[in-house]
Amino acid sequence: MIDWFVMFTSLGGRMGIGCWMERRLKRAAAVGVVAGLLVLLGCGDQQEQPGAPAGGEAQLGPSEVVEVVGDVDPSSPLAGIELVRSADVGPSFPNARLGFSTPDAGSRFAEGEAVEVGFTLSGYELAVPTPDGDERGIARAPDGQHIHFIVNDQSYDAIYDISEPVVLEDLPAGTHVIRAFPGRDWHESVKTPGALAQRLIVVGEEPAAYPAPEEWGPTLIYSRPQGAYEGAMADSILVDYVVANVRLSDGGYRVRLTVNGERQFLMSEWAPHLLVGMPEGEHVLQLELVDGDGMIVQSPFHPIEREIRVVR
Fold first, then answer.
1. Residue-number span of the structural domain to which 74 is assigned
2. Sheet containing 24-28, strands listed edge to edge, beginning at the edge strand earlier in sequence
3. Domain total for the chain?
4. Which helix (H) or strand (E) segment is 9 a member of?
5. Which residues make beta-bridge pairs with 288?
6. Distance in angstroms (rounded) separating the CA atoms of residues 216 and 236
């Protein structure tokens, strides 16, 4: 295990983050501030996304059931669930570019100091419907296309307007990574080169607990699902994520989904998937990036867990 990861875990890396989940994200305006988030572009933040689809319009393809790991208990409430590779619908947005103008990479802030974030976006329009969205049959954002903004390993916040900078308040002392990527109106991430941006900042006087995200090696970022799914929207639940510095393949790096610590699935393609047949109730989902031997990749903020609620 590399030294910076040992340092990160020994420092308690995520200490204080859970308390910050109810953070205030305030957008700087001429007079006041409004709740908001972050986005990104700029050559320094554009990272190659191996395995991303090429071309403008994705082709509609067949769905296929994803590999199941282990035996399935027929008496389990989860026995009937499946994870299927979703059909490709709509544009792939090959020219989408997202980046930060502020803060600078590696910026340091005093405890209690607000962090102002500026961002740029090209090749992608916010707050408009995504073409062919009606064909998805899954939950959609009523306000259209948006940005998925993530601090460390927390659930993303959606941002629809980037005309003003954003102010992050009450970040606890420590090392933080801010991330963003475009999301279609059905919440699927855009997977083209330059669509992901990440930036490391430090709050307080301690040295950075780990290097810049570009140096982490294979990286997994959780996106969906999150929140509650009710009625017909619970029939097909989007499973989506972003990978960086790695290409998924059969026999190589793959993403493992675990549902309630019981059902496991392996995804060998960076593509949207649908979780079908989820029973009503509260569920815990975990995503892990694993290597060809099934070993979990060591990196900050990984693995990632989310709780979702299904209402029938």
1. 3-311
2. 33-35, 24-28, 166-169, 115-122, 97-102
3. 1
4. helix 3-10
5. 256
6. 33
Q: How many helices (H) and strands (E) does the chain have?
A: 1, 21
123 pLDDT above the threshold of 60 = yes
Distance CA(57)–CA(66), nearest Å, equals 24
Average pLDDT of the chain is: 83
Give the position of tokens 């815990």.
284
* Structure tokens belonging to residue 3: 């030294």
- 231: DSSP letter: G
* Residue 138 contacts residue 126 (beta carbons within 8 Å): no
Handedness of CA 187, 181, 255, 268 (dihedral sign): positive
Please tell me the predicted confidence (pLDDT) of residue 63.
52
The tens digit of pLDDT for each residue in 100-122 reads 999 999 999 999 999 998 889 99
Cβ 172 vs Cβ 135: under 8 Å: no
The per-residue DSSP string of 249-268 comes to -TTSBEEEEEETTTEEEEE-
Q: In the predicted model, is pLDDT for residue 87 greater than 80? A: yes
CA angle 292, 298, 301 (to 5 degrees): 125
Cis peptide, bond prior to residue 300, ω within 30 of zero: no
User: What single string gives the DSSP state of each residue in 86-155?
Assistant: PPP-SB--TT-EEEEEESPTT-EE-TT--EEEEEEEES--SSSPPTTGGGT-S---TT-SEEEEEETTSP
CB atoms under 10 Å from CB of 155, counted, come to 16
Neighbour count for residue 233 (Cβ, 10 Å): 16
